[in-house]
Amino acid sequence: MPRRRWIELDAPPEADVRRLADALDLSEIVAHVLAQRGLTDVDEADRFLHPKLADLPHPDGMVGMDAAVRVIVGAVERGETICVYGDYDVDGITATSLLLDFFRRIDQPAFYFVPDRVEHGYGFHPEVVDQIAARGAKLIITVDTGITAHEACAEAKRRGLAVVITDHHELPETLPDADAIINPHQPGCAFEVEQLTGVGLAFFLSAALRAELDKRGRVRRGSVDVRDFLDLAALGTIADMAPVTGANRALVAAGLERLTTAARTGVAALKEVAGIGNRPVDYYGASFTLNPRLNAAGRMANAAIAVELMTTDDPMLARRNAKEIDDRNAERQETENRILQAARRMVASNPHADKLCSLVLYGDDWHPGVIGIVASRIIEEFYRPTIVISMDGRVGKGSGRSIDGFNLFDALVACRHTLVQFGGHAFAAGLSVDRAKLPEFMTAFEKHARATLRDDDLQPRLKIAAVVDPASWDLRTAGQIVSMAPFGIGNPQPVFASKRAKVLYKTTLKEKHLKLRIEAGGQVISALGWRMGDRFDEVGEAIDIAYTVGISDFRGEREVQLTLKDF
After folding, report:
1. Top-level CATH class of 350-458?
2. Strands 359-364, 386-392: pairing kind
């Protein structure tokens, strides 16, 4: 990636910082970060630092929840079979698993269907309704999909099946003809529109169903505790890159505790094959260790095996499925690397690549399950909005990722005359394009990027919360920074800078990581730069450093540790 430009964020009003520090007994550095992020109200800041499930909004506040509960409870009381129709990504897998687990706990006949990425593609498909009806379902509940499924809903109605849609994606101009729709984007919905994922909606639906069924005496004592679903809620919320604020923050914080204890048989097996064992799971462990394996099931094979893993109580079956998922992940990594190398060659062979504001890369038979990951990796190296397309005969399927300041969905809207179809969000999107239209699309996409982005937009930024004397970092202050976790989208780990830090010692670890010892104010602090070993010779006697702050607990010795982001 190009060298980053350090941007020091505006300092918050000093009065806000002092008020938070005094009221909550915080270091001024920590109070500075909270106020900088808009958490100036003492009670709000306290809730942020100590997220509780009790602070979650009531499910009844969501538009469509009452209708959905009424339809589902009616099916339960009539003993009708229910099909949970999901998606093949982690959000869809965990949402499907959550509702399936819920129905099994109340002895409700239920099965699931997850489309195959290659055979079916994304969405609730009308041609699958036949299969679902043939298995005896009278009700279909979609999770993480369905909000644009007009034809599938019509087909279900024609066959006498009820449909409840739960989907967090943007609303189309007209809604499908379903029996109930839960989507926080609907007008009048009191829930945080930009927050909830598919599994988040499934969690709140399960809470509402449990309350109603309990009132009707349909739940055995102790059979359903919705807190048991928090591990699934955390995995799906993190995987879908939802902001770790508001309701999501409480779900993720509590869910990471569940993932750490590994009460779910499938989670314990997944942690084992991932090499985590009994160690705690944080946001990044879920993001880069557990979720990639679950995702690989849907990317390289069929997501059904991941649903089976997350819903089984059989340790032997769980170990077998976890091993297969781990194998699929290894296959995914190999396939991804092969396509990444081909994509890099395509950039290198273009004599005008350095003048482009965007990248559209394509190849025949590139596996559609990994092109989104490849697009992300290309952005890491070249920092340009990137579309990677798998061509298969006449039509190509593409996946895009974007950078700050460039709305990818808006860009595809501007290029819609060149595309078969498209959808997505500001930072991630999918598309289909006719091979004959590909050059026209590339031209239109680059034209829009050139009109939208300035030169400095194409240089990644490193946002600095504050310039701090390294001597300020004691265990109390570092611990309070750590207490702002879980970090993630919407709540990034704060980055600090220190000027002219004195370097006492430098070395490399495993020939690829950089380790420094920094002296400040009479104390010596360790600083680690992951994958910065190639910059060893750049380290002088005194350097400006940008870093995050944590606490090392190596062999029982607690000390402040800095993780370098740049220097």
Report:
1. alpha beta
2. parallel
